[in-house]
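Our consortium's second objective concerns turning raw sequence data into structural hypotheses that experimental partners can test. To show how far this objective has progressed, the report includes one record in full. It was chosen at random from the queue rather than selected for favorable results. The single chain below, 111 residues long, was entered without modification.
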Amino acid sequence: KDPTRREYALKACGEFGRALQFCHPDLQADEQIVERACRQDGWSLQYASKERQLDPELVLIAVEQDFRALQFAAEDLRGDAHLMLRAVQFDGRCLEYLSEELRADRDMALA
């Protein structure tokens, strides 16, 4: 692995999160690079590896930047009541991206 490629990706994604889409798949799975991209632009989550899209803390970081990033979270996470409650409490518009079961949950809607 070329360390300079990783350093370049860290810098690029820190300045423009969606640069993650142009990174090698290995770098799209790199925890530090993906986190930096999502902190800069929540929509970057869509370019992260499936493994990173399963990371609940990373999903919340992305949602803090843009609630719509929740649509790129793994389906399993969108059905996780505890995690989705945190997202909805942060931004009520996240309700739109919850699993059907959670959207029907009255307690979730009242959060």
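The partners drew two points from this record. The chain has nine helices and no strands. The CA atoms of residues 43 and 69 lie 5 Å apart. Both points have been shared with the crystallography group to help prioritize constructs.
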